[in-house]
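Q: Is it fine to ask for two folds in a single conversation?
A: Yes, each is treated on its own. Send the first.
Q: Here.
A: Result:
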Amino acid sequence: MRKDDYCVPSIRVEYGEDGAMQSAHFSGWKVEIAKLGVDRCDTLNSVLDKLGKLELCCGIDRRDGSTLVHPVLSWGGDKINIKNIYRSTSCSTIDVSIGCPMCSSCMSEQFKNDEEEHHPSQVMLQVDDTVHDMIKLANSNAHPSSRRYHPDVIRWAMELYCRSPSAYDHLRTSQVLTLPSPSTLNRYRNVIPPQSGINKLALKEMERVIKDKGSLIGFVALDEMKVRENLVCRNGKLIGFVDKEMARNGNNDQLASHILVFYVRTVKRDLSIPLAWYATRNSPASKLCRVFWELLIECESRSVKILAVIADGHSTNRRFFQLLSGNLELPCDGVLFAPNICDSDRNIYLCSDPSHLIKTVRNSLYASKVGGKKHMRRGGQDIVWRHIKDLYMQESVQVLGRTRLSPSHVELTPYSKMKVNLATDVLSWNVGQCLKTMNGTNGTAKFVLMFAKWYEIVNCSCNCPIRCVDDDRLSWLKNDFIGSLLEWEVSCIFCMVLFNMITISKKIYNHSI
């Protein structure tokens, strides 16, 4: 049965080889046979007579994480019109005689409390096989510039492309799926015009999320990215110079070499958006403070409570933390925080990104060489990169490797130094245990195991969270880890003082002679 303006049958019944009814669809929506009140062995005329007295539920007017989307395709005379109907997970048909166009399941979902939080990207899409085949066939036979995609397909394709561009390209080139081209996805991703400073559209998106969710708790992360120095003329403007907000002494005639991004994310990721970015060269810490206070006011005025700031261990960021907290020197232990100018009852905690710190530790180990400019020793034992290379050479000749070490882990390049997974693979428990079995590598083994345990604690997941201050892991960080580093620092200072005393004594002795 098909309505005149519908592209799919209003009622479609499928029978198996045994003559029993297998499935029933209302306007492309599959309904369980048990909810139809018909017998599988009834004749086709009897089934159609009973189904003709039923009507499909009109759906609900709210879309959340538990909502199913039912696209209804109709012919508008010159094009196909798509109308999305939102349904509950157990939506079914109804009897037209009861006078209510909504089934009981959707009715209860309609009046459900909106306090339960969901993420819009988790909405599931249920499309009938006929509709899916129709769209797939139309796109596969059409010219690439004439293809049209459902918004949910665009959203899914963008997520897949962001996760793995190579996998997305393989699906397109193998013609398993007819997907949008990367240039099409880039146009959707760049729908917000790239303008330096605080993004007004990002603030509107924040207001929209807050209107649905209420107040949220989040944090601000900032980081720089290296870009190519160049000038581009766009819309009659030269782009490529350092922004005035980040220029030293107001001099912005230099070409920008980095992009500084301020990113706002809430705890449950209801909001995750870059709020501002600036073209920079050498960002002064004072400029970072001024921009951060502006962003804090924008967020707090829109009920986004900022509890933390996260940055890497760059010298500018350390100075930035000093200015925010008012401390001349950053303490090695204790909690570092800054006052909240929007709420005196809440502090803003200043945190270093563990991912950047673990890369810094790996880079320090990579630069440590016997007889080099940097040579790490502790307790008379060498901590050098050569031990990691020796372990890799042993692992490369074995059939079953005990570690994940590869040439990319051992021979680092400027690009590979930015990859966090390469650093965590080197400073891992497996590498530390393997180093303990080798001769003369005990110092490097202790170094690797200590920082492997540290990263596991500070990067703990929701499967093993830290729920109280009396957790043994926090005690280890405070007493063993920090205490061990402070002890190492004292021994290094003592060695430096002793070295200077010996040098001065030699000069005095040579002068007296």
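Q: Second one now.
A: Result:
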Amino acid sequence: MEASSQGVAEKGFTASVDKATDDIEKSTTVNQQLVEPVKEVRMEETCEEMRSKPPPYAYVETNETKPLINKGNVDADSNGIGSRHQSFNSVKSEETRPSSRATKYRKRSTSASNKKFNRISMIIADYRGEETSRRKSMTPFEAKKSAGVQTSMFSLYRRDELWMAWTSSIHIPLLFLVQILFIILFGCFVRYDPKYAMRNNFDEKDNVDSSHHHLVRVYSMFQDVHVMIFIGFGFLMTFLKKYGLSAVSLNFLISALSIQWSILMQGWLHPHCEDPQVEWGECPESQIWIDINTVSLISADFATATVLISFGVVLGTTNPAQLAIMAFIEIILFNVNEYIGRNLLSAVDAGDTIFVHMFGAYFGLACSFMLYNKKAAESEKAGANHISDLFSMIGTIFLWMFWPSFNAGVAAEGDAQMRAVMNTYLSLCGCVLTSFATSAFFSPTRKFSMEHIQNATLAGGVAVGATADMMITPVGALIIGSFAGILSTWGYAKLTPFLAERCRLLDTCGVNNLHGMPSLLGGCLSILLAGIATRKQYDKYNGDGSDSFHEIFFGIPEGEGRDAAWQAGMQAAAIAITLGIAITGGLVTGLIMRIVGAFSANKENRENRVSSKFGLSYSDLYDDNGYFHVEEEETA
């Protein structure tokens, strides 16, 4: 058979039309005569990489049953697969071809090859011309059947391509639907707070002054917390060298989603009547109203911080759809947990160490456990460079400056709020010194690590939050911050690698070290300080005035079983419930995210089964190019 094919080639391929099918089936022999020896390209090298190289290159199929393909037939479709299927279909014989062997791609210079490709193209063109003539002689039914056979496979392929494109872009309809849902719900339930945002005379006097004082008192701290959410958290996560745009942008997106959803959730847990002067329990009608003011906005920011803490755990390994789902579920669980802790257990947590930092950290770690993939842990892009570290320090400085407002924002007005500001500030100062010292101590070259400086210097603000408004004394605040800095730095240096290797916990930002362990420390301190609290400590110079002790601990007068020991027990119960809801909810949410990731995986991901749990291909992990247009860097 090989000799016969050589004879066909030597006669200039002048065989009759009846033998056209045989010529195409024996294209391997033709290739051996026409194509000069070339170097093999590794099978792992993708078509995308080949197209990125400068010409001249051409792809040659050495399969025994498939014809040679001109490089011009490979278009910009994904991996060139769509165009390759199209070219096969256009010249495919009606006869059943034998099963093909593995296709090998070869690279060759185009010198003296244009003529050879033209000769092959002439064979194909002749066959097409004869095939067209044959079709003209067909009956309409036969022509329709023949066309359907040739186009069916291509149509199925294109439908599959469109389906895969939309499933990998599921975040587009998801975000539209979520925003439409928010618009409907806000229209049905949300209104301005009649007491502060609408003119009234409920107290038989104009409310202009009270509204103004409320705004002045709350808005400054609300703005500080707002800056922490959008600039502090956003830029803190830009330490990844190729994920800076995504970190800031997705932080922006998830924050906007979480704020709207949290306003609704908090409003449903704390409803109001149509008449603002009537308590909900005495409300004659069943219509629920959500009254919003500046306190509602700052509370929504606190809830958003919880989601951003969890976002730091899975940074760079999840797609926008997964993050939106995580935020949606976490906001529900956070508000339920906070309602249980504050309203039912009367737990004290001025700086949200328990309800924000602890919940967000262990919720995110539970999600990460369900999404763990060793490929992500070994990615070379999961690192920093000089510029990304510099941008990350901007976030650190903003968080460090405004953290006192975070811890004092919802503390009781007056002396308690004043103590919250001072205790947080002193704790942060002590944390900085020990973080720097411990970072150099753990370094073999005794140099500072930017990873430690960017994060561990903030641990003092987390650790002191639950006790920020308590009588911990200035020296106590320094001690808490100093120990938190040591603990956090040790976690980054020693614990994080251990958890990734032994416990399947991939923590991109080291959230366990900045928020997790310091929050456990702060929670334990709140149990201790609540258990030893006395009125003499809090009202030493108060005499018969208002009771600061009663105000901070929600009233624990002697008798009725509500004493200092009872309050310590409630603190412990709040910690246990928070950990339980966070870990359980995180595991379930991580499972849902895993399913969504597999469903929305892009084409390369589906074919190679790499990191399918993240919905990202291996090349898109920790890379802005996954979901953002990135301008090419100019070279000097």
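Q: Anything structural to flag on that second result?
A: Two points. Strands lie at 39-40, 60-61, 105-107, 190-192, 290-292. The longest strand covers residues 105-107.
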